Amino acid sequence: MNVYAKFRTMMDNHIILSFKGEITSEIITMVLQIMETRLEAEEAKSSVKKKVFNILVECMQNLYHHSEPEKLGELKTRKAMLEMYISDGYYNIITGNYIKNKEVEKLQTRLDKVNSLSKDELRQFYREILDNNQISSKGGANLGMIDMARKSGEKLDYHFTKIDDNISFFDFRVKILSKKKVAEKSA
Amino acid sequence: MDNFFIEGSKQTPEISFNAELGELEIKGRSIPENTFDFFNPVLLWLEEYAKSPAKKTIVKVNLEYFNTSSSKYILEILKRVKNVMNDGHDVLVEWYYEEDDEEMMETGEDYEDVSGLPFSLISVEED
Predict the structure, then answer these.
(1) CA distance B17 to A111
(2) Which residue of chain A is at minimal alpha-carbon distance from B106?
(3) ipTM topping 0.90
(4) Which one of B11, B33, B71 has the shortest CB-CB distance to A141?
């Protein structure tokens, strides 16, 4: 693909941010700074801006804490991807990272549970998990998926691709209604 | 006892605890990747404070954003303040949120429910 065609695709898909590589603390800080400025300029509604920013923080910190190397023990292959684009009045955030096969079931169970709950049930579940004292060795509070589902108000979309006996690829999508769509709906 | 102050940054909140006045304020944003490193000294200070607290303790939570790994520590802070209340002292949590930030208001209600502390939810105008 020539550069113009590639550029056009990115423009036509309304890609705001596209990243592939290792998610470090410096990258997180930098991306958040850029996205905050960007959201400030594009999104007049502060509640939407906050939701998008919050969900972006959770997504990046999930990648930071939970990405596994593609090849066992080779830390330099600890790559992940993050993309954000606008489509049909929604901000879409997608992430992709490797995860150990033995972690898949637990994560899938949590995602399915979160997706099965109503707004009020999610709130109750959030309170339950907040109140049980555990903080994981990776600093996780086990609240990330619940919090993202509450803020987005939409189902969390995910898929696992098994790579080999040790590793799977986890892709995750979350979307947030932007003000433009809200305005259309009420019109 | 000494007061406790940490300046705010892009990732971490300003923490300003005044032992004599019993005013404990957290404001700004709390989105660090490594929350333990940031919050552990805060919790240690509160454990000391709980031994000889002011007559009335007011906790002001005025956060624009916080990540889920900070949320456990915010509850830990409130639990230490709960001990102060259980020892027979007056305690109030003032939970601030920007007027159109429904989530932050609801989160305040969640913390009120989970912590069992008296809360006052205060809506402020945006900057």
Answers:
(1) 39
(2) A123
(3) yes
(4) B71
